[in-house]
Design goal:
By secondary structure, the chain is mainly alpha-helical. It has a 3-stranded antiparallel sheet with strand order 2-1-3. It binds manganese (III) ion (MN3).
Amino acid sequence: MAFELPSLPYAEDALAPHISANTISFHYGKHHAGYVKKLNAAVEGTDMASKSLEDIIKATAGDASKTGVFNNAAQVWNHTFYWQSMKPGGGGKPTGKLAQKIDEVFGSYDKLVEELKTAAAGQFGSGWAWLVADGGSLKVVKTLNAENPITSGQTPLLTIDVWEHAYYLDYQNARPSYLDKYFSNLVNWDFAGQNYAAVA
Ligand code: MN3
């Protein structure tokens, strides 16, 4: 069975004006959809066609002969996770167990955000910034291009896409402005909290 493009969890204009419908129409409708299409083309007729996305990502990571499959599978996963990492009327702060753990590991919510923004702004070229659970703690990590923390045994809790296609139509080269709006108006801490609850 072929992989399918998951539905967006909100309307294409629901994150405006922070992320415009125009950005989402290209980012979701062209980029994310394109990764699904290319992944299906790459695995069709192989033993990978019946595997889960996670299994494909883990099986192909670091294998130079399977870079195309890895890149498309990971980008399908990463984008599905990214859409859920935001919501209309997002922002605010984490609550419950995740909030406690953030204070314990980073000192405060503000320090975590500062660290995530630094990682996201400092990712040279295309990639992602993540909050992950790792061995009973939390970490901020950044990954290049399609790379995903699950190949390092980490559990993603939240992600920020810092490929230029994520923000260029709305913010041009001002990646820090996109990051400011991500945290002030878009971030979905409920989603991160649910992901943390599953492993905490
Ligand atoms: Mn993207």
